[in-house]
Amino acid sequence: MPINIPKQLPARERLLEEKIFVMDEERAVKQDIRPLSVLILNLMPEKERTELQLLRLLGNTPLQVNITFMNMATHESKNTSKSHLDTFYETFEDVKNRRFDGMIITGAPIEHLAFEDVNYWDELKDIMNWSKENVTSVLHICWGAQAALYHHYGIGKYKLPAKCFGVYKHNVSNPTIKLARGFNDEFTAPHSRYTAVSIEEIEKDPRLTLLSKSEDAGAFIIISNDEKHIMITGHLEYDATTLAEEYNRDLQKGVEVALPENYFPNDEVTNQPPNSWRSHTHLLFSNWLNYYVYQETPYEWK
C-alpha cells in the first residue's frame, strides 16, 4: 500500500522510479480506509536525502501511511532551502493539537554537544513530552535515540576514543520480541557516531530491554517495556553509499577520520560498497509499523 505525500515533494519522483507505491493527497482522500498518520521530526542537515531514505522504507508495507514532516522552530537549517521547509514542513506549534499513530525522530550531527547545549533542546523536550500522550509509538534514530534515553530514562552518552564508523555485526537477544520477528541470528548495520550509551545502564533499567547489540558497536536496538519508545543507535536507513559520502566529506573538510570498517571491499575506496543491511532495515520498519503502530493505535483517538 502507498505512502501519502505532497505531490510536489522532490523525493516523489525518485520513489516512483524505484517502483515504490506513492499516492498524492488528491487520490488519498478518496480512499475509504483509516490510514496511519506518521510524523517525521527531521533533524538531519540534508533533509531531502533523509526524506527519501525514510519514505522508501515506510512505503514498503501493506498499510497506507500519511506522512507529516516537522522541523524545529528554534533552529535555522543551513543545508535545506527555506522554500522547501515552508512548503513541506510544519513546526510543533502546527501539530501539537493533533495525534499521530507513529513518529520518527532522526539523528543529528551534534553529538559533540551536551544535550543542554543544543540550541533546540528545550523545544525537543517539549516534543518528546507531548509524544507520550499523543503518539502511539516513537522510533528514535542515532542521536535521537541518545536524546530519548537521556530525557526519558536518565541514561547519558559518553565520548568514544575513536569514531564508531562502519558496518558491524549484531545479534538479537530475544527473537520472540515482535520487532525482531524474521531477523537472522546475526545481521549487519551501519554506524556513524563519536558517542555511545552504556550497555550496563540499559540492562539495569527495568523499563528497558536491550534487543540487539554488537561486540564492536555496542548497544544497538533498545525497546521500552511499554513499547512506547524504540531506540536505534545506528543508521539502518542509510543507503549503500552514505558512509562513503560522509568519509569523503570529512576528508574534504580536513577532518581526521579512519576508513569505515567492514565497508569498502578489500578496504579499497574505489570499490563499490554493498548494502548488506537492506533486508533487515525493511523488516524492522515493517515490524514497527505493523506491531507497534497499526496493531496498537486506536481507530479513533479520543
TrEMBL record:
The record marks 111 as: Important for acyl-CoA specificity. It catalyses: L-homoserine + acetyl-CoA = O-acetyl-L-homoserine + CoA. It is an enzyme of class 2 (transferase). Substrate binds at residues 163, 192, 249. Its EC number is 2.3.1.31. Pathway: Amino-acid biosynthesis; L-methionine biosynthesis via de novo pathway; O-acetyl-L-homoserine from L-homoserine: step 1/1. GO terms for cellular component: cytoplasm. This is Homoserine O-acetyltransferase. It comes from Filibacter tadaridae.
